[in-house]
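Sample entry copied in:
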Amino acid sequence: MAQKSLAMLPVATGQGIVPRPNWLARVLTMFDVRRTRIELARLDDSQLHDIGLTRDQVQAELERPVWDVPANWRR
């Protein structure tokens, strides 16, 4: 059991987006998604250019609901 608890530590603390099986995990994933989108919006235009995105693409991403994530994140 301790091994499982240690494995879940990054999930519970929000360290990255990983698949989470239960409702609490889904809520935590939504917080991760929102935080990541906000961080994306804070990038300047040269940083966005470096990762191949435009300001319009970032704006479209910000307008998506937090539950609108790739299917593999919902498992």
In short: Residues 59 and 74 are 23 Å apart (CA to CA).
